[in-house]
Design brief:
Blueprint (H helix, E strand, L loop, with lengths): L1 H8 L3 H4 L4 H10 L1 H11 L2 H20 L6 H9 L11 H16 L2 H14 L1 H7 L30 H7 L7 E7 L10 E9 L7 E7 L2 E7 L8 E3 L3 E7 L5 E5 L2 E2 L2 E7 L2 E4 L1 E7 L8 E8 L2 E2 L12 E5 L7 H10 L3 H8 L7 E7 L4 E4 L5 E3 L8 E2 L7 E4 L7 E3 L5 E4 L21 H12 L7 H8 L5 H6 L1 H4 L6 H11 L11 H22 L3 H5 L2 H11 L19 H20 L8 H4 L1 E4 L10 H4 L1 E5 L11 E2 L6 E6 L1 E6 L7 E4 L16 H6 L3 E2 L5
Parallel strand pairs: 7-18, 22-25
Antiparallel strand pairs: 1-2, 1-21, 2-25, 2-26, 3-4, 4-5, 5-6, 6-15, 7-14, 8-9, 9-10, 11-12, 12-13, 15-16, 16-20, 17-19, 22-23, 24-25, 26-27, 27-28
Helix pairs in contact: 1-7, 4-7, 8-9, 11-12, 18-21
Length: 702
Amino acid sequence: MEFNRRVGSGTLSEVLGEATLEDDKFLRTIGLRRAAEKDWESLDENTRAALQAYADGVNAFIESHKDRLPLEFVILGATQVPGYIPSPWTPVDSLAWGKVMCWDLGANWRDELKWARFIQELGEETTRELMPAYPEAGPFIIPPEAKDYRDLGITDLFPDEHLARILGNDGEGLGSNNWVVDGTMTASGKPLLANDPHLSLQTPSIWYEIGLHAPGFDVVGASFPGTPAVIIGHNERITWGVTNVGPDVQDLYLEKVNPDNPYQVEYMGQWEDVKVVDEEIRVAGQDKPISLEVRITRHGPIINDVVEGLAQPTAFRWTALEGQQLFRAVLLIDQADNWQEFRDALRYWDAPSQNFVYADVEGNIGYQMPGHIPIRAQGQGLVPVPGWTGEYEWIGYIPFDELPSVFNPPTHFVVTANNEVVPDDYPYFIAYGWAAPYRAQRITELLSAANPGSLTVDDMRDVQADVYSISAEKLMPYLVALEPEGWLQERVMRDLLRPWDYYLSADSAAASVFEVFYWKLVEHTFQDELGELYPTYLEMGNYHRLLLERLVEEPDNHWWDDVSTDARETRDDIYRAAFADALEYLGRHYGDLHTLWRWDKMHTAHFDHPLGAVKPLDRIFNVSGVPVGGDNFTVNPGSFKYKDPFSVDKGPSYRQIVDLSDWNNSRSMHTTGQSGQPFHKHFSDMIESWRKVEHHPMLFDR
C-alpha cells in the first residue's frame, strides 16, 4: 500500500532517492494525485464516508504497530530514511492508486507514438500491412501540420525502464478472461460465472481475498490493497467478473507555443494562457527539494520535459484526469440486488473501461461495457494531432445506454477475452488494437462442445487451465509438411512435432520447439525490412501473430523475401531457416537430447517485489523460477516478452468460479499468498496451487 500510494502521488524519491527522481517527475507531470484530489471534492457523501472509514482503520493499525512495521520499512529506515514510519493514510491515497490501475489498463498513448513512427519510416500502406488490427475503412487522419513525425523525436516511451515496471509497460500480455453460462447449460440449472484477470505478476500479490459483512454489505471476492470494497466477486444476490476493454481514451496533441510567451499556446487563432503548477519533489539524502514546473493546456499537461526527444510541445489528454466516480460505482456494485441496480451502478464506472459479465440468483445472465469513451470531432486518436486547430477535440463520451450490452442472450452464454466487442457497423469508435481472438475462440469452442445441462464448477476449472494453442494449429502444419534437413530435424519431426496435439503443456518438448521456432520465424520474416523498428515490432505480438497467419496462406508474398539477399525467398525458405535456428538455439541452451526440451525448463514465472531489484534482497522478496505452461495467447496464459525470452511476467492474477446454485461451492485463488510479509507462512503458499490451477473454496457463509 505504501509503494502504491507513492506511485500514485509521485513521491517515490522521498524514500528511494535519486534513482526514482525521473519517475516522480513523470508521475507529477501527468498529475494522478492532482486529479485524485479533484475527484475527492466531487464525490458523494456515502463514498467519501467509506473511503474515510477505510483510512481511519489503516491509520489505527499504523498507530498500534509502529514497533512492528513490515520488513520494507525496517530496511528503508536503516538505509534511506532513518526511523521510517508511514504517514497517515488518506482517502486521496486510495483514489490515486485507482488512477494507477486505470493507467495500467488503459495507457494507449505509447501506441500513438509507435503508429506515428512506423508511418514516418515505412509509409501508411506498409504500416497497415504490419498492423492488421487497424480498421480497414477510413484513412489515417494526418493533417499536413502533423505529417513530419520525425520531428517528434520518438525514442523512449518512458523516461526509463524502471518507470515502465512501476506503471506497466506496453500492454502486451495484459488481458483477462471471463464468461458466464445460464442454467440451461449447467448441471445445477443455475448460472456459473468464471473470471481470471491477467495482470503483472508481483509480490505481494496485487489482490487479496476478503469478505465484507456489515449492514448493507454482504460480499466476498478480491480487492486491491488500499481499496474499501470488493472489485470482483459476489454478494447474496448477484455475481460479476471483469476483463479489460482497452479503449482509446488517451490522445496526444501537438501544441504551438507563443514564441514571445512560453505560458501561452495557440488555439483557433488566439493565444490561450496555460495553467502552471509548481511541484516540489523531495529526494532522500538531499536537503533541498527539486522544483518541477508543469504547464497544462486545455488538452492536458505538456509532457516534453519527461519524455525525451519530443521536439514539438506535446500535451497529454486522458479520461481518468477529467473527473472520476469509480469508487462510487464499486461500492454500488457490491450492494446491487439485480440487473437494473447493477447497470445503474456501472453508470458511474468511468475508467478503466471493462467488460462486465453478470449473473443473479434468479437465473439471469448479462454483459455490460461501461466507461467514458471519447467521441472525437475528427479522427480516431491513432496518432498525435494538432491541438491548435480545434478540429480534433473531444465532443463528449459515448452515452451509457449506447454502450454494448446484452441481457439473457439466446446463445445462453457470454465470453469476453479482450477481443473485439462490437461489429463493424457499431456507430462509435472504441479501439483499434483488440486482443487476438484465440482465447475467446477457444473458450467459446469448449463451452459450445458441452452437452446441454452438463457444465459444473469442475468444467469451468478445466477451461481456465486450458493451454491449447490455436495459433500453433494454424502455423505448424506448414513446417511439418517440409522435408527434414538432417538427422536432428528428422528426429524432432518424428518424435515431437508430428504427434503433437498443440497443447502448450509444461512438460511438452514440442511446445518449446514451436515457441522458439515462432520467435525465429518473426525474426527471419520481418527483421530485414524493419531494421531498427524490428525490436519494437517484435514485442507487438498481436500484430505479427495475426499477420503471419495470413501470410502462410500466401507462400510467395513479398514479406517472405529476405531483401538482404539476391535470391527471392518464399515461405518454405523462411520456415526452413527459422526451424534450423530454433533447433540450434534449443541445443545450445538446453542440451542435445531433444526429448528433454521441456517447455517449463525455459518458460518460468517471476513474481518481483519493488525492493527485489536490489541484491541480495531479491532472495527475500522475489518468488522466481515457477515452471508453467501456456503462452501469451492461450486461455491459461504465461505471457512473456522476447527481449527476455520466455520469462513470464504477466498471467492470471486472480481466478474465481462462482456457482449460483450454492455460493459455498464457488472457488477462487490468487497468486502468491494473502500476506505481504516475506517470512510469513502465507506469503507464497498459494504458488503451487496457482501453477496447477487448483482453487480453494470461496466460502460465503460465516
